[in-house]
């Protein structure tokens, strides 16, 4: 109908009137045609009503047509998407020329075109790319986030990277990803490579940094150590004599040791003694060098360095990692020496890495670490280069190869303090200048030193009394003998220093709360003793037999059973070392 109308109303047609300006157009739009009709009818013509209705219904049908069109378009798009073949994912290997890419897709390599719409900055070597059916690169996806991690064997001069694989597998040479170009890489660095083993993608954070090698300048003096006279004089003899009397040693063709082993229960001052030895020896050597001692190829010693590491921290689950750490440790010590410091390597819990096969719970550790350690040690010329101190509470487990003459052939015992030594240790911490209870001083005739001595005596009595309250353990020896161990039998320098620390905290609290200068009182110390030995805190759990053995002064193999006096009652005996 509208067509018909349109024909009728063509320009200059019979229905053309001056009133409808739009009539001059050749429109076929039904709404406009209706408008033209309406305009051509006289006012109040009843046909107008019909045309209004027609206009309304035409408008409605146009709107629903529009909606149908939109839905159809959407469905067509979905159908196109779902029926299109998937794009393959590959890896970009190289960009040999403008608009060209060398790619690997599913193991096969292609020389492909690159869609010019892909931004050049996104085209990174090693990145994942999307290719269409024609294998043209149409999109980049960034680096794959997964992939194996390998340890670098060598960075070749042309930038390529060589990786030696374990267990007899072939070694590999890989190229660097765009982000690795120019990055300084060294043997041992860990790199993540793309899953197709073609490109090294990224360098992983150096895990070695997490291992704790404490490198400090030793400042501990012999005076800061309470008791331990025997151990101290043995060490001084072991390290000072060869330096002070080098000629006498030479006359006797005596092989100088490279260090010593300190053994004994935990917390009794092995580390402290090592640090004091480092401070004192470096001072001695620097003095003897300044006084025109032997001329050396290395710079003169002007200070000390104390490289402290715990054996178990060297043990690493990564194959070859522990060896590298030991090598690094010695390298670090040599570097310190070149800087003019006398380096001491202190290895705590040394049995964990230098143990006999029986000692090392993980296989193969001792078989590779011990010979390596020995050869590093043999590379050290004298005590003026590097000094090694091993600390252990299981010296029986250390491989005898480590303890041969010329290596670590001095074993020095650092025992638990007896009454006298414990008093010496307390005196190191309870010094005369600390604020002290005036009443206590008055009781001792105004003599502060005597007052402190009485405090110390009080603590010693409290700890060493053979009372039921002080009972800690019962052990059964191989000989069949049963022995009860009291607090005094398991006390250590660490426990004594911690008792004083606790007492000081109480006194400080009291002074702050009351605002009065009260100072330490005897009660602070006796409370601190009780708190320190409080059930469960200093003793290992009942089932940790190995830990128990570390605490005892008896040879571990002689102990067959242990039980503790928790809550005053004796617990069931734990049997250990039954079958040896
Ligand atoms: P170890 O190396 O034998 O496990 P440490 O030397 O680390 O023991 O001692 C731990 C802490 O205990 C020291 O820092 C020190 O505060 C205290 N301590 C241990 N033995 C003594 C001692 N003989 N004299 C003074 N303080 C000691």
TrEMBL record:
Q: Which domain of life is it from?
A: Bacteria
A single MF term (Gene Ontology): ATP hydrolysis activity
Renumbered residue ranges of the record's region Disordered: 1-28
Where does the record place the AAA+ ATPase domain? 256-418
Signal sequence, start to end: none
Q: What class of enzyme is it?
A: hydrolase
Q: What is its EC number?
A: 3.6.-.-
Matching InterPro entries: AAA+_ATPase, AAA_ATPase_domain, ATPase_AAA_core, ATPase_AAA_CS, NA-bd_OB-fold, P-loop_NTPase, Prot_ATP_ID_OB_2nd, Prot_ATP_ID_OB_N
Q: Where is the composition biased (Basic and acidic residues)?
A: 1-10
Q: Which UniProt keywords apply?
A: ATP-binding, Coiled coil, Hydrolase, Nucleotide-binding
UniProt lists the family membership as follows: Belongs to the AAA ATPase family.
User: What is the protein name for this chain?
Assistant: Uncharacterized ATPase, AAA family
What organism is this sequence from? Nitrospira lenta
């Amino acid at each position: 109908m509208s067509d018909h109308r349109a024909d009728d109303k063509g320009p200059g047609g019979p229905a053309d009137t001056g009133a409808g300006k739009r009539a001059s157009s050749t429109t076929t739009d039904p709404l406009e045609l209706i408008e033209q009709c309406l305009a051509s009818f006289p006012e109040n013509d009843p046909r107008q009503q019909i045309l209004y209705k027609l206009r309304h219904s035409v408008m409605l049908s146009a709107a629903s047509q529009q909606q149908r069109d939109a839905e159809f378009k959407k469905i067509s798009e979905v159908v196109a998407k779902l029926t299109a073949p998937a794009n393959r994912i590959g890896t970009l290997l190289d960009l040999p020329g403008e608009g060209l890419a060398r790619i690997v897709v599913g193991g096969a390599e292609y020389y492909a075109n690159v869609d010019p719409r892909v931004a050049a900055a996104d085209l990174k070597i090693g990145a994942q790319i999307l290719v269409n059916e024609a294998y043209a690169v149409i999109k980049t996806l960034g680096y794959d986030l997964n992939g194996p991690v390998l340890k670098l064997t060598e960075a070749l001069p042309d930038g390529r990277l060589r990786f030696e694989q374990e267990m007899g597998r072939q070694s590999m040479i890989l190229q660097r990803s765009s982000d690795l170009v120019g990055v300084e890489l060294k043997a041992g660095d860990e790199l993540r490579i793309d899953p197709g083993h073609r490109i090294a993608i990224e360098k992983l954070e150096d895990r070695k940094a997490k291992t704790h090698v404490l490198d400090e300048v030793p400042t501990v003096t012999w005076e800061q150590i309470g008791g331990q006279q025997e151990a101290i004089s043995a060490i001084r003899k072991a390290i000072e004599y060869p330096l002070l009397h080098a000629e006498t040693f030479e006359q006797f063709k005596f092989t100088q040791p490279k260090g010593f082993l300190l053994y004994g229960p935990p917390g009794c001052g092995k580390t402290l003694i090592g640090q004091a030895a480092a401070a004192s020896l470096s001072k001695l050597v620097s003095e003897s060098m300044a006084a025109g001692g032997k001329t050396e190829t290395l710079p003169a010693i002007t200070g000390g360095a104390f490289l402290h590491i715990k054996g178990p921290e060297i043990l690493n689950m990564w194959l070859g990692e522990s060896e590298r750490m030991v090598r690094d440790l010695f390298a670090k010590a040599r570097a310190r020496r070149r800087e003019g410091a006398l380096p001491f390597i202190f290895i705590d819990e040394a049995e964990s890495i230098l143990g006999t096969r029986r000692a090392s719970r993980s296989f193969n550790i001792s078989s590779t670490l011990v010979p390596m350690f020995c050869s590093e040690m043999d590379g050290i010329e004298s005590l003026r280069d590097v000094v090694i101190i091993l600390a252990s509470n299981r010296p029986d487990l250390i491989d005898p190869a480590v303890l041969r003459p010329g290596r670590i052939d001095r074993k020095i015992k650092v025992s638990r303090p007896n009454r006298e030594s414990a008093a010496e240790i307390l005196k190191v911490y309870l010094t005369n200048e600390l604020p002290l209870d005036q009443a206590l001083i008055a009781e001792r005739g105004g003599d502060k030193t005597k007052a402190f001595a009485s405090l110390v005596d009080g603590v010693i009595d409290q700890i060493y009394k053979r009372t039921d309250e002080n009972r800690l353990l019962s052990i059964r020896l191989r000989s069949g003998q049963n022995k009860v161990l009291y607090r005094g039998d398991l006390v250590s320098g660490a426990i004594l220093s911690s008792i004083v620390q606790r007492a000081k905290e109480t006194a400080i609290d009291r002074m702050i709360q009351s605002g009065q200068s009260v100072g330490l009182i005897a009660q602070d110390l006796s409370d601190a003793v009780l708190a320190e030995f409080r059930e469960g805190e200093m003793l290992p759990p009942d089932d940790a037999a190995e830990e128990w053995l570390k605490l005892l002064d008896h040879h571990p193999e002689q102990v067959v059973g242990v039980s503790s006096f928790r809550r005053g009652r004796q617990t069931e005996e734990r049997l250990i070392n039954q079958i040896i």
